[in-house]
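Sharing a chain and its predicted structure for anyone who wants a worked example. Both blocks are below, sequence first, tokens second.
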Amino acid sequence: MAAPKKGRGPAGGQSRPGRALVLILIAMVALAGGMFLSGHTTPRLGIDLAGGTSITLKAKSQPGKPDAINQTNMDTAVSIIERRVNGLGVSEAEVQTQGKENIIVNIPKGTNSKQAREQVGTTAQLYFRPVLTVTAGTPTPTGSESPSATGSSTSKATPSAKAGDEETASGSKATPSSSATSQGRAVTDALKKDTTPTPGASTTDAPASTETPDPATAALQKKFTELDCTDAAARVKAGEGVKPEDPTVACSAEGDAKYILGPAEVSGTDVDDAKAQFDQQRGIWLVSMEFTDKGSKKFQTITQKLSSQQSPQNQFAIALDGEVVSAPQVNETLSGSAEISGSFTQQSAEDLANVLSYGALPLSFSEDTVTTVTAALGGEQLEAGLIAGAIGLALVVIYLVAYYRGLALIALFSLAVSGILTYTIMALLGPAIGFALNLPAVCGAIVAIGITADSFIVYFERIRDEIREGRTLRPAIERAWPRARRTILVSDFVSFLAAAVLFLVTVGKVQGFAFTLGLTTLLDVVVVFLFTKPVMTLMGRTKFFSSGNPWSGLDPKRLGAKPPLRRSRRMTAPTDHPKEA
């Protein structure tokens, strides 16, 4: 007698659904544990929900550089602005390009957000220029006596520069270019011929030259005399459109002093690093600078020249956006590193170090728009988004309960698992990659409720179709899964593809919608495969569902099930044989 063949399980059967449930449970516990251990128990909110400032910067054309606005320079500017803002301790700021000539800077509401906005507004190039003369920031009346060049007219002590590294760069005795030297001499001579005494000059100075100044020098002197640095608009326009190789006029950041500056000798790109440090021996704050190899040679050349000059010609101005943020004196030739000391507070030292480290941009920008969202308005928008999500979820639940009855419990548990996974992942992605939950992202999460519910409905309807064909519940669950699985995967692939394309071709807040939609679509696949299907398999073994209870949602009578298909045997009528006569 032949041994009976070992029967196969149901098509697409899942013999051990407990394994999948244990796997997804471990994933949920791990994500939740990571969320609590990291201390980030809530998703990071964008500025439209938490409040903050959004600044749109527009790139300006550079004199003599019509092709300066390109993707490479824009990407470099984004990187530098981001480091500058985050260098102030403003965490979670967003900096990104929009179009070909705009940069969007989103600064969350926080302790240093105001200061960060001021730093973002100063986005032009950084230059080190020799000081030719300096006086008070108000217009200079003809024949009046100017303040001393050392800046004694102000309450702040002029910082001084000293060597921070005893080693000097070899072969760095090169002198400035002839054009820079001649232009600087021309401006200096023009200042000596002016009737206003040169700031800081003594009564024993050599008599003024009788040479007639050239028109450019005369125009520069006139502009310097009439410049009113107490006017904020005048400060901004003081050095507008001036090339690095030309002398210029400039104001101090506070507007209490104005300068004639020589051609730029060192640019901000030559600074490798700058840090604010507290000198415990002297009890003062100072700024230490490190230069690149090329910048070190340039800096050695200019400080060698300046250290032999009298005040104020022994100062170099650190000019950003045409404003002098600092003008330290040079007492000796400096090389690869230097430090700037003076009447710094911790905040002013950190600000100057930040400017030196991140101030050099390949382009100049202007503020196009500035939008500020208060925390109260952000809270109202978040509340409105949560209410919309709750309404959408309630409608889905009502539909599931009314139409699927007992199956609605499986759908609700699946939605809860999807919600837990989505929440914990969003909370962890904030500190990990800087993901911020903004209003479009909330909309993406609301749309995902419908996508996830649609996957349950596809599977439930496939099971019902099998029951209508006359099959019992357990075989129906397993036979329906392969067909439902294909439909769910195709549907989710299309949704994920749309989210990916939207994320790649858009910028700003719309990317938040696309990212959330793509994330929840992936989680839908995970939940359906590792939770919904295993739970459905287990529920099919219970009497409530397998017996076709009217409240189970799988009652064969309500579904109009056909009777089981069975083969009928052909009955052959007995043949009557005629009796023999």
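Comments welcome. The radius of gyration is 38 Å.
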